Amino acid sequence: MPNHCEFRFYEELNDFLAPGLRKRSFAYAFNGTPAVKDPIEALGVPHTEVDLILVDGKPAAFPHRLRGGERVAVYPVFESFELVGVTRLRPQPLREPRFLLDVHLGRLASYLRLLGFDCLYRNDYRDAELLAISRAEHRILLSRDIGLLKHSELTHGAFVHAQDPRRQLREVLDRFQLHRRIALFSRCGRCNGSLSPLSADAARTLVPPAIARDHGDFQRCDQCGQVYWPGSHLPRLRERLADAGIPLGGGP
Length: 252
Description:
Helix content: 25-40%
Number of helices: 8
Radius of gyration: 22 Å
């Protein structure tokens, strides 16, 4: 005979559950004495999304063994208040957040770089590469692949709920509290390298004469050499991001 316990998931964790299990308590059947992490992920919730588990009202870590009859409450990341005296399950936040994006999030990568965030992206990364890079370089893996985020090797990751890239950007900024870290136009959108000021004299040898004549504010990527200058696209870009709730201040 299988054992049973009662589960209840809170807030956005319900998005990962089957519709009939959302925002309610439900019975879960299991055999043996599994670690509480196992049924959580079997129900569809990646461990990277969970910050607190209460078993019969007491904090529990992922390895906690279920034996039957328990009441399990599972909570997502708490951003707005501090929980004192409980077992936080997610690793400590990275001091300087750096990101790694899977193959489906290319536009989001471009937006993050635009705002100055160190963001690795290639459209041919394999899952094993993403996991290895995230672990070796201490990068937060952003993905819409739930299976990838369930991998036991992954310590810093986040599921991106939104499908529109601008909404994805707002979601990432809010989740990781990045608004005060924005450094507009400080990173190359092409290769992720840092941008440095370029003198007008140097720019004349690298850009068309009309561009050199009409613009005086140039930057060049330290890594790939791409030259940037403020153009007519900037007002449109600011408007698009403002529509997503991301007002941009000054800049080129």
